[in-house]
Write a structure and sequence with these properties.
heterodimer, A: 105 residues, alpha+beta, 3-stranded antiparallel β-sheet, 4 helices, globular, B: 265 residues, mainly alpha, 10 helices
């Protein structure tokens, strides 16, 4: 995984699920598409991350069977709030970093 | 002859098997993922060998996948405490609610038939003069010291049961809000709670309590003791109601265990 992505995978997964339930493969594809293929995470690392998010109550999952049996993940209400909090924290962090670096928007 | 995907899946199967249901789920997800990755690469024109190679390369190391799944499913001390607090919260709130129902029933009994059926003070009980004077201060209309004591105990029982009921309702409302992400720092406890487990424990606990209370009430009736009879029966009835209300969920949980890691709303 790109070092810059460490610590942000959970938030990115929640963000992708905001638009609706997805199974793991579709989620990974969407993550790559949104980053214009720049964020290439080891695909196998996404599933433990999804299980972790599920343990924390941020997502819920169920088996779906449309040709191939897959587990579909959906954002919970708690996950939506976590996404909002994480997004706000990211904005604050990046704004402060921009100030330090002298970057103007 | 096996293909590279089969080899990886065999390896995954062996390594994930010790993790039980969580390992089985992780295996099925990896299998579905790799097969889809190969199929899509082939559909884009890649040769089968190239598709195998690309899919496995993008998936990453098998050992990292297994370690990741293992780390998530290893229940740490903090997670265990969070889960226990969530379970205790839900169980306590439910218990409070049903005790509150018993309190309402006892308030009705007290209003209709007096305090003897609610308070357990036996006829012939002798209280100290100081205690009688204290009780007379609060219950000046009581004809006797024993009557004042019964009024006091009936108030205590009804009041405390109804207070517990209000606490229970508050706890259930807070739990409902926290499960929907509106409980602030309490959200994680509600999210970690296991309603299925709570239902099973609730049915066993409430069922046992109901049985004991009804036995106690029956024994009291057999010897003609009426003191506190309504309290035993009201608690028993509330406990029986709780057991009946929770039993569908408990039975469903026992009959059809969910796949590991399923989170319920």
């Amino acid at each position: 995984m790109t070092p810059e992505l460490h610590g942000h995978l959970d938030l990115m997964l929640l963000a992708v699920l905001k638009d609706g339930p997805l199974h793991g493969y579709a989620l990974i594809t969407e993550l790559a598409r949104r980053s214009d293929q720049a964020f290439q995470v080891p695909e196998g690392s996404v599933y433990p991350a999804l299980q972790r998010l599920e343990r924390r109550g941020y997502v819920q999952s169920q088996w779906s069977d449309s040709g191939r049996r897959r587990r579909t993940y959906a954002l919970t209400a708690v996950g939506q709030r976590q996404l909002a909090t994480g997004t706000r924290d990211w904005w604050q962090f990046s704004a402060r970093l921009n100030c330090v670096l002298g970057v103007t928007a | 002859m096996s293909d590279p995907i089969d080899d990886v899946l065999d390896d995954l199967f062996t390594r994930l098997a010790p993790l039980g249901p969580a390992g089985r789920r992780a295996y099925l997800e990896a299998e579905a993922h790799l097969l889809q990755a190969v199929a899509e690469d082939e559909a884009r024109g890649a040769s089968l060998d190239a598709a195998y190679s690309a899919a496995l390369s993008r998936f990453g190391e098998v050992s990292e996948y297994v370690e990741g799944v293992d780390a998530v499913n290893r229940l740490g001390f903090r997670a265990l405490v969070t889960r226990l607090v969530g379970d205790a919260w839900l169980l306590g709130a439910l218990a409070g609610f049903f005790v509150g129902l018993a309190g309402v029933a006892l308030a009705v009994v007290r209003a209709v038939s007096g305090v003897v059926l609610v308070a357990s003070d036996l006829s012939g009980t002798v209280l100290s003069k100081a205690r009688c004077a204290q009780l007379a201060e609060y219950y000046p209309h009581a004809a006797t010291c024993l009557q004042a004591s019964r009024l006091h105990h009936a108030d205590e029982i009804v009041g405390s049961y109804q207070t517990l009921g209000l606490v229970g309702v508050g706890g259930l409302v807070a739990y409902w809000l926290a499960r929907r992400g509106r409980g602030g720092p309490l959200n994680r406890f509600a999210a970690a709670a296991q309603p299925d487990l709570v239902a099973v424990v609730g049915v066993v606990g409430a069922g046992t309590l109901a049985l004991l209370q009804f036995l106690q009430g029956t024994a009291d009736l057999a010897v003609g003791a009426r003191n506190g009879l309504a309290t035993s029966l009201a608690v028993g009835a509330a406990a029986a109601l709780a057991a009946v209300a929770l039993s569908p969920r408990a039975l469903a949980a026992l009959r059809a265990p969910r796949p590991a890691g399923t989170v319920e709303r």
